Amino acid sequence: MNLADEDFERLLAFRDGLRRFHRWSEQQAKVVGLTSAQHQLLLAVRGHGHPPSIGDVAEHLLLRHHSVVELVDRAVAAGLLERLADPLDQRKVRLSLTPEGERRLEALAGTHFEELSRLRPRFETLWADLPDD
Predict the structure, then answer these.
(1) Does pTM surpass 0.85?
(2) Out of 3.40.630.30, 1.20.1420.30, 1.10.10.10, 3.90.1170.50, which CATH number does the structure's domain 27-121 have?
(3) Which residues fall within 8 angstroms of residue 50, CB to CB, at 6 or more apart?
(4) What are 18-54's pLDDT values in tens digits?
């Protein structure tokens, strides 16, 4: 594949946009008293559809199991998450947001959707003329 200067400019603009969104998201998490990792953890738990296992969350966050255990330990201590026994397999631990974790995540979700809506046209124009292949 031969790439033109314009292709590299689009890739740079895309990466810049992703990095700017990530930095903005980190700042928004701080506003509600969360770290970026806590925000991502809460989103992985809430967005899973049903109480996920630590392994499920590790897959979403692209982290090792023991790293997620440490993150969960801190979130439980902060009152953001709770551990639940799996009703079918007592050896498994499931995760659920506490009311405080739910409140903080809700506070972030609306602003994130607004920001993504604002950014959408910029990202769409970057890739508008690419073939579907």
Answers:
(1) yes
(2) 1.10.10.10
(3) none
(4) 999 999 999 999 999 999 999 999 999 999 989 999 9
Q: What pLDDT digit, counting tens, does each position of 80-109 carry?
A: 999 999 888 888 899 999 999 999 999 999
Got the DSSP string for 19-86? HHHHHHHHHHHHHTT--HHHHHHHHHHHTTSS--BHHHHHHHHT--HHHHHHHHHHHHHTTSEEEEE-
Q: Say what the alpha-carbon torsion angle 77, 35, 81, 68 is, to the nearest 10 degrees.
A: -90
Distance CA 66, CA 132 (A): 40
Q: What is the DSSP letter of 3?
A: P
For residue 129, the Cα-to-chain-centroid distance in whole angstroms is: 29
